[in-house]
Design a protein that fits this description.
alpha+beta, five-stranded antiparallel sheet, five-stranded mixed sheet, 12 strands, 55% helix
């Protein structure tokens, strides 16, 4: 419709121009009306000028429209109506196209912001980078996991783990791998999955990173719990009848002793002592197995806001006598002083008591033993409680096994204290780690998420 009107306007102007030129030629050859000839000539010049202006105006409008689209400049306005109805319709068409482009661009920006929000809030760490290692995108989860604020290149992760840098740069698309990172506060088991995509003609790698340490610990604990349930079931089924039978025989022998026969009384006394030994051993074994049952019967935490200074105060009161008896000095630091944590008071007290007992045992042969108890926050804003001692330390071979149920380095230990402590911390969605320098310091850290 616009083109039709525009074509009609051009044709009309050309016809008028042709008629005017014909009139000028006629006047020049057939008359001597010089004033009229001049007027007609001026009219022809004006018509030519107007036609050129019409064409240039159309070109300028079209150029402005195309430039606005090219540079996404949607501030341009097409409202002029001074050149007639056809131009008004042309301007309206241009304006409608601009509005459509603006709407499409707005929708794309909304989709982009939506995807950015999803990427930044998803719980899985995501890093997009090119073949050289230049990072195009890193989301909040990845920054939090790797404890970085902003990085521009994969090589910048070398301070965290050279193995992580190597894996990210060398892994083939659609492959998985594991990277173990030992940081000051945590042991991270990172599961990495990479895929490749193209954007604006460039090949980029997208790596997803997840810390599966807690899942591995949970599976390990579940496996041990299943084993414990089987062991306790079988042992209890066997030992309970033995204990009952030993008690019955003891009562029967008691009746036999009352019979007047000296020699028989002596023999029965020996048998009684032997059976009593069996009974005591059976009851001891039942008690022993019952202690292992605790690993599978930890109550669900009753979460509440605890003041760390009050928590420390209660634990120190409970352990004060043992500290004095073993001539061990205690130091405490809490920063900030009003530090709080969301936890179950009784369960966390039990964990701290276990750690104190281990520290006291480690310092039993040391003249100047010292235990340090501290609370604070790490760089990620998590509450950290530390129990340190200056004992002989833990050898590297035992350090990785001390949280395994039944493993102990003490002659009289049961090997369930630290396993129990780890399970309690897992219920608090946190963790417990250990670091040790032989003959200098051993530190256990309780980490609350």
């Amino acid at each position: 419709m616009i083109i039709k009107h525009f074509r009609l306007q051009i044709i009309t102007r050309l016809i008028l121009l042709a008629l005017t030129i014909y009139l000028l030629v006629y006047l020049l050859h057939s008359t001597e009306l010089y004033a009229t000839i001049v007027i007609v000539a001026v009219v022809i010049i004006f018509q030519i000028y107007d036609l050129i202006r019409l064409m240039e105006t159309t070109n300028r409008r079209l150029t402005t429209f195309l430039e606005a689209i090219r540079y996404a400049d949607f501030s341009q306005s097409f409202k002029g109506t001074e050149l007639g109805r056809s131009y008004r319709q042309l301007n309206e068409a241009f304006a409608e196209v601009m509005r459509n482009f603006q709407r499409i661009r707005g929708e794309k920006e909304e989709n982009y912001r939506y995807l950015q929000t999803v990427v930044q809030h998803v719980g899985v760490g995501l890093i997009a980078y090119d073949k050289s290692g230049k990072i195009e995108l890193i989301n909040t989860a990845a920054k939090r996991l790797l404890n970085v604020s902003q990085i521009g290149h994969i090589q910048s992760l070398g301070s965290i783990s050279e193995e992580l840098v190597y894996k990210l740069l060398e892994m083939k698309p659609r492959t998985r791998d594991l990277v173990k990172i030992q940081s000051e506060d945590d042991l991270l088991q990172l599961a990495i999955y990479t895929t490749e995509f193209r954007m604006r003609g460039r090949a980029l790698t997208l790596a997803s990173i997840q810390n599966i340490q807690s899942e591995l610990e949970e599976q390990e604990m579940e496996a041990w719990q299943k084993l414990i349930r089987v062991l306790t079931h079988e042992i209890m089924n066997s030992m309970t009848p033995i204990s009952s039978l030993a008690k019955t025989i003891d009562e029967w022998l008691l009746e036999m002793e009352e019979r007047p026969n000296g020699r028989q009384s002596t023999d029965m006394q020996e048998i009684k002592e032997a059976i009593n030994t069996i009974q005591k051993r059976s009851e001891g074994l039942i008690h022993f197995v019952e202690s292992y049952r605790k690993l599978t019967r930890i109550p669900q935490p009753n979460f509440q806001i605890l003041k760390v200074n009050e928590l420390f105060k209660r634990v120190v009161q409970l352990m004060e006598k043992e500290l004095v008896d073993n001539n061990i000095k205690l130091s405490q630091v809490i920063e900030p002083e009003d530090l709080t944590v969301m936890a179950d008071a009784e369960l966390i007290e039990q964990v701290l008591i276990n750690l104190f007992k281990n520290a006291i045992d480690a310092l039993s042969k040391k003249e100047k033993g010292q235990i340090s108890l501290s609370g604070g926050k790490d760089q990620r804003g998590r509450v950290i409680i530390k129990v340190s001692d200056n004992g002989p330390g833990i050898i590297p071979e035992a350090r990785e096994k001390i949280f395994v149920p039944f493993f102990t380095t003490k002659k009289t230990g049961s090997g369930i204290g630290l396993s129990l402590s780890r399970q309690i911390m897992r219920q608090h969605l946190g963790g417990i780690t250990v670091s040790s320098v032989p003959n200098k310091e051993t530190t256990f850290k309780l980490i609350f998420s």
